[in-house]
Specification:
The protein is α+β, with helices and mostly antiparallel strands. It is 42% helix and 19% strand.
Length: 159
């Protein structure tokens, strides 16, 4: 979408999907859920990590802080729609078990943020980027944009 909207480019080949890795990710998520290692999970697809984080924050109403891992381009990190990825919320007490479970299956796991259910201020999605900047997106503003775009274009729904 970004390439089409910003650069007028629409084409090329989508990334190849490795169905065995997709199956492995599914198995890991099922095992982690069954064993109580994760509190939430969301696939990373359309819109990349940022879209998934926004959807998770809006659904839970809980603040989160994320950062761009070292060595990654901030834009690619945020918006890449590459396959076989998920964001999971892991209790700090279960982080090592989760990491070990992934490593035992040769599946990488990267810590990219923290959840803050006790935020002192208005719930927000906070993003620290590689340029030393911090962006705070209050969940009320995100919800307005996320849920208000289509009604603004097409009018309110008739119930």
């Amino acid at each position: 979408e970004w390439a089409h909207e910003v650069h007028g480019h629409l084409g090329g080949m989508p990334p190849a999907i490795d169905l065995k890795r997709e199956q492995l990710l599914s198995q890991i998520l099922i095992a982690c859920s069954r064993d109580g290692l994760i509190n939430a999970a969301h696939d990373v697809s359309d819109g990349g990590i940022m879209q998934a984080l926004v959807e998770m924050a809006l659904r839970s109403g809980v603040s989160a802080r994320t950062w761009v891992p070292d060595g990654l381009d901030a834009f690619v990190f945020a918006y890449s729609e590459s396959a076989t990825r998920a964001i999971v919320v892991v209790a700090r007490s279960e982080e090592q078990r989760f990491t070990d479970m992934c490593a035992a299956r040769n599946f990488s796991a990267t810590r990219l943020g923290v959840v803050d259910s006790e935020a002192a201020l208005e719930p927000a999605l906070v993003i620290d980027n590689v340029y030393g900047e911090t962006m705070m997106l209050p969940l009320t503003e995100l919800a307005e944009k996320h849920f208000g775009t289509l009604p603004a274009v097409f009018g309110p729904t008739v119930g």
